[in-house]
C-alpha cells in the first residue's frame, strides 16, 4: 500500500490520535476475507459503499470550501484507497488515515481482522485499531526441546522467529557410559542398560542446567519485545525450568504452559498451535483488569467507573489505563473549549446553549487516552459484563 506505513506501537498510535484537521481526516478500515474468492467480495463492497456515502455527504455540504476540499481529496486518494481494497495485497486487516488539508497518507496492515468502514471526522477513527492493540498485543513463544529453545515473537497475527538458543553438549568424555561398546565388553545386558540410563540422565541434567542458565536472557528478550504473555511449549519438566525464570518477571506478564513438543513445526505452525491459548489468556487479562479498576473505584482507591467520573479523571490528566466496552454507544456533550461531560452535567459558567452534542464519547475517550499517554484496553464480550452496571467504562488512575 502507498503512503507512510504505520508501525503499531504506543508512539505511532499516539501520533495518529493527535492528528487533527478541521476539514476532516479520512479513515478507512478493511478486513480482507480470504474465504471470499468472488470478483467483488463483500468486504470490498461494504467499504466502497461507505466511501460512496462519504462522497455523497460531502457533495451535500453547505460549506463550499469544505465540499470542494473533501471531494478533491477523495479523488486524489483513489490509488491509495484501491490499494487498501485490493484482495491481492498482503494483510488481512488494512487501514488508511489521511487528513483532507494535507497531503500525508498513513497506512497499515496486520494479519488480523479490523473492520469494514470509512469515516470522515476531525480526528482519525481509532476504535478498530484499539481493539487490535488489545487482542493482538505482543506475545512470545518459547518452543523448548532437547535441541534448546526457539524464541518466536507473535504480534497482530504475524509470527517471527527472533533467535534460537541451541543446546550443544560435548559427550566425548562420556564414552564409557554410552552402552554399545561397553555392553559388548561387559557381557551384561543389565549393566549396559544401566549405563544407557546414566548417560540419558546426565544429558537431561545438563539440559536442565542449560535452560536455567538462559532464563535471564529469555526474560531480557521478553522485556525488549514488550511481551505481555509468553507461551512455553515442550516437555513439562523442561518448560517448568523455563517458567521459573519468567515467573520472576513483572506481574503484568503471564506464562502459559503447553505440554507438547513442537520443535519440528514451522514458525507459523507453532503460532497457530499456541494462538488459542494466548487469545484466551488475553481475554482473561482483560477481565482481571476491568475487575481491578472497578474494585479500586468501589474501595476509594485509584480507579473510576462510569462516564462522569472517568471523564472527570481525564480532565485532570489522571487516567493511566482506560478500560472500555467497545460495543457501548456512549453519548454526551462538549464545551466550547473541548471538555466532555455526560448528559445532565454542565460545568460552572457554561450555558446549555453553549454545549454541543457529542455522539461518540467512547471514541473521544480513546483519543484522550492515547494522546495523554494512557494505555487503552477494549473489552471483548467475555469480559464486558464486569462493567455492565458502570456504563461499560472504567479506568485505573495515576493517583
From TrEMBL:
Pfam families: baeRF_family5 (PF18846). InterPro entries: Bact_RF_family5 (IPR040983). Residues 333-356 are annotated as: Disordered. It comes from Streptomonospora halophila. This is Peptide chain release factor 1 (ERF1). It comes from the Bacteria. Residues 333-349 have a biased composition (Basic and acidic residues).
